[in-house]
Specification:
120 residues; two-stranded antiparallel ribbon; Alpha-Beta Plaits
């Protein structure tokens, strides 16, 4: 594995749990899953999907998991850290896949990236 440490780009994709992929080979799948598969197919170093407990977006509608306002559309964040060139490569693909949401980019400094050692 080549060295991955150093300056990289962190991309965060804010979507809803019930969002579906709107185009491409993953059309109709849950969007977070479609994004994860697309990022893997394009060789990204890794991605993590995080489910939020509450939030709101451009619609200003609050999504929460509380019993009083049970929502089936909790906030989801897909996070990816990779070289800027790789992030720029997948942005146009994501634009086709995402109907509504928010995508942010920021600089990150990777200090450690390695797989777990395999036991034999």
């Amino acid at each position: 594995m080549k060295a991955f440490e150093g300056d990289r780009t962190l991309m965060r994709i804010f979507i809803g749990e019930s969002d579906r992929c709107s185009a491409g080979p993953h059309k109709g799948k849950p969007l977070y899953r479609a994004l994860l598969e697309m990022l893997r197919e394009h060789g990204c170093a890794g991605a993590t999907v995080v489910q939020g407990i509450a939030g709101f977006g451009a619609s200003a509608r609050i999504h929460t998991g509380s019993l009083l306002r049970l929502s089936m559309d909790l906030p989801v964040i897909v996070e990816v850290v990779d070289e800027d060139a790789r992030i720029q490569e997948v942005l146009p693909l994501m634009d086709e896949m995402i109907g509504g949401g928010l995508v942010t980019l920021e600089k990150a400094h990777v200090v450690l990236y390695r797989a777990e050692p395999c036991e034999e």
